[in-house]
Amino acid sequence: MLKAIAIDDESMALEIIKSHASKVPFIDLEAVFSNAIEGLEYQRNHDVDLVFLDINMPDISGIDLASLLPKETMVIFTTAYSDFAVKGFELDAMDYLLKPFPLSRFMKACQKAQEWKELQPNDASDHLFIKTSEGQIRVNFSELLFCEAAGNYVTFQLDNEKLISRMTFGELEQLLPSSFVRTHRSFIVNKNRLDKIERHQVHLGKHIVPVSVTFSGSIL
């Protein structure tokens, strides 16, 4: 069950979200807010998995509010303005609903959030599941050497194979344990698999990964 809230300055929009959410069995819409600040305060004091968030609001924009939420809080933007879509996805939003959205589209967005939540490892987890063109594939952390970003895709380099999944680095960092660190804006490495550390690069088996000045301190 996903614990959710909705923040929108339009009462009609909140009523639609309440109606749609009541029809999704895994969504528990705990509260709705027409005041963005009140919604943010509620989120800070309660365990909230998902926020349905309008973008164009008088006190603070949804874009700015989303940047104040914890990284693990999922956001589904709801707005009447399509030109905000790119900025929304830059913030790793789970989805972007353009008003007026039907129940079917709302459910699709909620399903995406539910699937993401299920893929999140707990503290004791030794693996994650990633979505590829061949389905959900288990990746053991002990076998993962490094990850490389390319746009909205990530390549997972394992001992004996490569896997490619559509996700951002921001999403990936929420799934990996602390033994994985960035060495470069496009690379995350498994510190437990490092064979050699040099000034501008590290070695993991036969692979060489660059180290930038910005992230050089993270591998020591």
Automatic annotation (TrEMBL):
Domain HTH LytTR-type: 128-220
Annotated protein name in UniProt: LytR/AlgR family response regulator transcription factor
Protein origin, superkingdom: Bacteria
Keywords: Phosphoprotein
Any Pfam family the entry gives: Response_reg
Species the sequence originates in: Algoriphagus namhaensis
Entry-linked InterPro entries: CheY-like_superfamily, LytR-like, LytTR_DNA-bd_dom, Sig_transdc_resp-reg_receiver
PROSITE patterns: HTH_LYTTR, RESPONSE_REGULATORY
Domain Response regulatory: 3-114
Keyword Ribonucleoprotein: no
